[in-house]
Amino acid sequence: MPSSQQSKSRRSAKLVICEAAIIAYVAYFAALGLKWLDIIYSANTLTILFNVAIFTVSVVLINLSVGLYEARLREPFRGIIRRIFVSVILSFFAVTIISNVIVSQFAPNPLYAPTAVPLIVLALVIFRYFIHNTDTFYSRPKLLIIGAGVRASVIEKRMRRDVDCANFELLGFVPIAGDDKQEGIKNEKRIDIALDDELIEYISVNEVAEIVIACDQRRGTLPIKVLFDARLKGIKVTDLLDFMERETGQIVVDLMYPSWVIYSNGFQSQNYFRELMDFWLNITLAAILLFITWPIMLLTALVIYLDDGRRTGASVLYRQERVGKDNRPFDILKFRSMRPDAEQDGARWASKDDNRVTSIGAFIRKYRIDELPQLLNVIRGDMSFIGPRPERPEFVEQLIKEVPYYAQRHNVKPGLAGWAQLNYPYGASVKDSLEKLKFDLYYVKHQSLLLDLLILIRTVEIILFGKGR
């Protein structure tokens, strides 16, 4: 039986294939339509096919970058329409540049792209509406939770929305001895059933694909015979921590126990070759981005200076001590987004609508422009492109005392972008730091070039839709 992770991968692959086919068909149809209407006279087949291919590849890649193939995309249908629109418009510019500048011999008629764009948008919106309201792509595997106490309630509290359970069908929770009924699940379905042959029959009749172990006490309470029988029949048995890690992309720190860390996969050490490759990739990418963005940086510095720098004499750049890999301190560079007297009373958490932020500062934070000087930190080796965001020493000291396993996020270099920023974009308290740590530890455990690439692509979404802070 397919696991939830396999189902998600298959669903994404089917989406990519189907949408690529739709884009190619509509883009080709747009060219033929203009030709049939005698609007385009000179289009040859090779030119049409080349532009169709460019349109298809660019839309699919940009769809990926704006999160349209993300299994945990938490957007209403209106948000999906917006992403499709942005993706196709960006593809329009990509096709224009490639076909008219880079490979000019394949330049299409000027009317081709403006005709294809609205047709592609319409086709993708109709297709997404269809799959948004049906389970056409795959049948969801059925899950059964063993336990209905405090640990099981984590699933109820953190996976309340339909989108959180989009990759599986939750049959219910089976209470067992030792569960804290008072603090356990409140609203989800309880399945009161004997933990013997009756449960085995229930699993068989309902075609359960996976059993999640989420009981409060395991010793002497788990239905070992049932679980043994289930495994022999190919049913997957998963620990609660592994289930939450897989489905939410985070590690539930407050439920972690040492033996889970010891026996779980991940937390691979970086070898010399990987570190050397990471070092040169970071420097090369930082140098390229510096070359591309220096006019934006120059303009930003000028605007900050004219806004209040000229009057106050404050620098347009802001240096602040942060904690890096292995707890080594370094000075981070940012464009100044707050008033010069923002911390005259000492360090304090930033807040969502912080009145210390200048009008220019609010804009450059929203679109992450204030982070651009950190490219110099990457070149110096203080930071990587991808990793947990570095925190201030004053806060780190407090967080290590109050948040379990917080120090472990310093096992890797801090980054310009991170897994936590994609999944929990705002943090201004100890509680927020705990939530972000769950994603940071997931990154530390699963760090790889592939995950780094995914985070880098998804970060484009944050910049495009102004979700930065």
TrEMBL record:
Chief location of this protein within or outside the cell: membrane
Localization per Swiss-Prot or TrEMBL: Membrane
Transmembrane segments: 12-33, 39-64, 84-106, 112-131, 279-306
Residue intervals of the Bacterial sugar transferase domain: 281-464
Membrane topology (UniProt): Multi-pass membrane protein
Keywords, in A-Z order: Membrane, Transferase, Transmembrane, Transmembrane helix
Top-level lineage group: Bacteria
PANTHER family to which the protein is assigned, alphabetical: COLANIC BIOSYNTHESIS UDP-GLUCOSE LIPID CARRIER TRANSFERASE, UNDECAPRENYL-PHOSPHATE N-ACETYLGALACTOSAMINYL 1-PHOSPHATE TRANSFERASE-RELATED
Official protein name in the record: TIGR03013 family XrtA/PEP-CTERM system glycosyltransferase
Species name: Glaciecola siphonariae
